[in-house]
From TrEMBL:
It comes from Nocardiopsis mwathae. Gene3D superfamilies: dinb family like domain. This is Putative damage-inducible protein DinB. Pfam families: MST.
Length: 184
């Protein structure tokens, strides 16, 4: 093969920056790998919600409170709860988080004036705050969860990959139901 020839890419489309970061982390350390996968799932949620009308973003297509707009609100609250409140010990009220008793789970509720661009921006801000909260802390750093006990930053990052990936999958399905956009 000459220098100008390149093998055909196994990917059907150009990769996003976060997908490239995941591939680059294939032989990286544990922290870089965890952070790359988490950021890729965060970006996937934003991609699935982006470009929708306000009505479509709020449309309930399942019996639960799950909507694409509500998912952004929920995930922003989850980010702040775990990284700001649990890991750093900041006060829930100071962070604007709902009460710890989530029997009716208000984390999915939207205000009438919430807009999709504002929800995306708030989620992206929450993710940036989470990155900053974890930066420089060792993966072995622990904090205490009142119901579970001692947890590590390592556990928190794995948990957030799981939580965000689950909702990214929900977002894929909701987006396909909304306007037929499937896949990436």
């Amino acid at each position: 093969m000459s220098d100008t020839e390149r093998p055909e890419s196994p990917f059907p489309r150009p990769l996003t920056g976060t997908e490239k970061r995941v591939l680059a982390a294939a032989a990286a350390g544990e922290r870089e790998t965890l952070e790359a996968f988490l950021d890729d799932q965060r970006a996937a949620v934003v991609r699935r919600a982006s470009g929708l009308s306000e009505d479509d973003a709020r449309r309930r297509l399942v019996p639960s409170k799950t909507t694409l707009a509500g998912m952004l609100r929920h995930l922003a609250i989850v980010e702040r709860n775990w990284f700001q409140h649990r890991l750093l010990g900041r006060d829930r009220a100071e962070l604007g988080l709902p009460a710890d008793d989530l029997a009716d789970d208000p984390t999915w509720d939207l205000a009438d004036g919430d807009t999709l661009p504002e929800l995306i921006a708030d989620y992206e801000r929450a993710c940036a705050e989470s990155r900053a909260a974890a930066a420089g802390l060792p993966l072995e750093r622990t904090f205490v969860h009142p119901q579970v006990g001692e947890l590590s930053l390592r556990w928190l990052l794995v948990h957030m990959v799981e939580e965000t990936a689950r909702h990214a999958g929900h977002a894929d399905i909701l987006r396909e139901q909304t306007d037929g956009t499937a896949g990436f």
